[in-house]
Predict the structure of Transcriptional regulator.
Amino acid sequence: MISSSRVFLAKPLAGITLFVLCVTSFAGHAATDDELWVMLQKAAVAARALSYEGVFVCQTGQQAKAVQITHLFDGRNEFSRNVVLDGASREVLSQGSNLVIYNAKNEKIVIEKKRGQNMFPAMLPLNFDAIKENYTVHLSTHERVADRQAQILFLEPKDRLRYSYKFWIDDEYGLLLKSVRFNQRSEIIESIGFNRVSLLNSVALDWFTPRIDSKKNYVMADEPVILPDGKLSVTWEIKELPAGYRKVDQIVRMVPGKPYPVMHMIFSDGLASVSLFIEPTNKSGKTKVALASSGYTSFYAGVNNGYLVTAVGEVPEATVVQIANAVVIGK
């Protein structure tokens, strides 16, 4: 039987009823795949339904930064504030799926509004159906992270079109304490983990405000102009996407410095995501095919029937190439 070391009750979150958030222990029996998927599901819920504060460190390649996070769930809404503690001042405030980013640039604080993203520790989706189709999960050992005991789970892809992951899940709270991403050579390409974390005992929101340099002027960044899909003067379709990837969003927008609208689509397998852009080629010069990667991000650009098709995402190079080549431009 699965034992429960602590139980948290939560109210409906984003339209999903959270009945019981309990922590799973597998002492004394071999865990089934279903039980391991349940553990990951509970980690996804815990990151959204618990109130906590702490500091985590994100390392990619030779770059590392510490981030202070405060997260509150009041039974209906999520509030979060992330403060980058290293380098240029930066704060991210989110309420639900709405993000507001405060960046220090020269003598100003530039404010940007963006759509919600799955940020650590809420990087796991609430729905695991697509992930189960494309990954396998394995149980590993226990380790201590941020002075807390954690169960380690491996998430491995069924093909070479996505990365593998290693997750440390808190034994008591079910919260994701650490995540490591690996490339196909089993090399670490990203590591994010708490070095301090604790539950909040108050529901006060006095911390939910930007505290970045108040002596500087706050200015709004230019928001992209969103257009109807029909404004893109090209017919296109998507054929033969890589296994498991589905389109999750699509917009047409004007981009500063570009005279024509740009089609922007987002594809995801439930965990990894790829952005695809379609726009007319630059008639003043030749557009070359390009393929590159940096850390866990891959980039591909090619010409298709007079249009520049660009794919960029936190996936292997083969994935962005396949997604870009799945575009069929009408003549």
